[in-house]
Specification:
Largest sheet: 8 strands, parallel
Distance between the termini: 21 Å
CATH architecture: Alpha-Beta Barrel
CATH class: Alpha Beta
Strand order of the largest sheet: 1-4-5-6-7-8-9-10
Strand content: 5-15%
Number of helices: 13
CATH superfamily: Metal-dependent hydrolases
């Protein structure tokens, strides 16, 4: 076992999921937000097909069955479920630790339910958005406080101004188990970096708090899944964000800032590094772009990538950077191999040196998020 997989207190971290999820309980917001927002808050409602979230500004109910189907036989997976059919580890921390044990997972970085969280960070009512974000972060801290060495929360950040984002990050970090934060949009509220956003980037860099983008920044309210395709690739949006951070100078101003691009896999990274270096070297001669290094060098220092299934990426790990890759279970979503994650890992990592395997499966996440007594 590599040194990077054991913390100072002696707990052994062999497998850390850098992208897992909770399923928010039906009363999370209605029981926690100020009375003036309760009628507008996300609420769960029973329909003939099953239970679903009813969200302000979203025309259709948002079901959650495929977010709760890990471990189910594919023949019985379905978009619509009743809340009482869920495994309790999705929302109960004691049960979650037991579910980690069943899969031999030592710790998880916990993200919210994507479409549900999008609905309130995309809401233009500042007071409402702040109330929803704070209620979620308070609940998450309570969840993680059960066992902060294994349940590691990523705080939601509001998208209605950098001042508000900084205040919420500071508030969240004072609570147990919060190890990072999620960018749903840039703090100023848009999909382009604004000068005021530096206040958040400075705080995250100074406090060594990784900022995450989970699949994509949020462009608007969520919709139901109506595509005829059974799935899609997940990395369409994040190359834009990499370029924004590099060419807006954020990473020169804050050299200690770390960005995690979650659930986007990593096999595409070497190609992208090659292409942006080539374009930069062809175009910067006119003086428009003057970086302190090649774009790929910024990627090698500042960005990490979580993957669920990426055999190609693991085979080409040296071109990506072994220290840039983080394993993800995606539990309890449909992408998870729970409770047989190690079976898949054994096949994918056949022939991979032990030290490299341990970095990808645990060491990188442990060091980045300072999991254990040093955190």
């Amino acid at each position: 076992m590599s040194e990077g997989s054991r913390n100072q207190g002696g707990r052994r971290y062999r497998l850390i999921s850098a992208d897992s999820h909770v399923l928010e309980p039906p009363d999370l917001w209605t029981s926690r937000v100020p009375a003036r927002y309760r009628d507008r808050a996300p609420r769960m409602q029973r329909f003939p097909e099953g239970d679903a979230w009813v969200l302000e500004g979203v025309a259709d109910p948002i079901n959650f069955g495929l977010n709760a189907s890990a471990g189910m036989d594919p023949g019985v997976m379905r978009p619509w479920m009743r809340w009482e059919e869920l495994r309790p580890g999705a929302f109960d921390p004691a049960a979650r630790v037991a579910e980690q044990d069943r899969d031999f997972v030592d710790a998880e970085l916990l993200y919210p339910t994507p479409r549900l969280s999008w609905s309130y960070v995309a809401n233009e009512d500042v007071g409402f958005q702040l109330a929803m974000v704070r209620a979620y972060n308070d609940w998450l801290a309570e969840f993680c406080g059960y066992d902060p060495g294994r349940l590691c929360g990523l705080a939601m950040l509001p998208c209605c101004g950098a001042k508000e984002a900084v205040a919420e990050l500071e508030r969240a970090l004072a609570q147990p188990g919060i190890k990072g934060a999620i960018l749903s949009r840039y703090p100023s509220g848009g999909l382009e970096i604004a000068p005021e956003d530096d206040a958040l980037f400075e705080l995250a860099a100074d406090r060594r708090i990784p900022l995450s983008i989970h699949v994509t920044l949020v462009s608007g309210m969520p919709t139901v899944h109506k595509t005829k395709l059974p799935g899609d690739v997940r990395f369409y949006d994040v190359p834009k964000r990499i370029l924004q951070f590099i060419f807006d100078g954020v990473l020169d101003r804050f050299p200690d800032l770390r960005i995690v691009l979650a659930e986007v896999d990593c096999g595409w990274v070497p190609y992208f590094k090659e292409q942006i270096d080539d374009r930069y070297q062809r175009l910067h001669l006119g003086g428009r772009f003057q970086l302190r290094g090649l774009p790929s060098e910024y990627m090698d220092r500042h960005f990490s990538y979580t993957y669920i299934t990426d055999h190609f990426g693991i085979r080409n790990r040296e071109a990506i950077g072994v220290e840039r890759i983080l394993w993800s279970s995606d539990y309890p979503h449909v992408g998870a191999d729970w409770p047989n994650s190690w079976r898949t890992i054994a096949a994918v990592f056949s022939g991979v040196p032990e030290a490299e395997r341990d970095r990808i499966l645990a060491g990188n996440a442990r060091d980045l998020y300072r999991i254990g007594p040093r955190g």
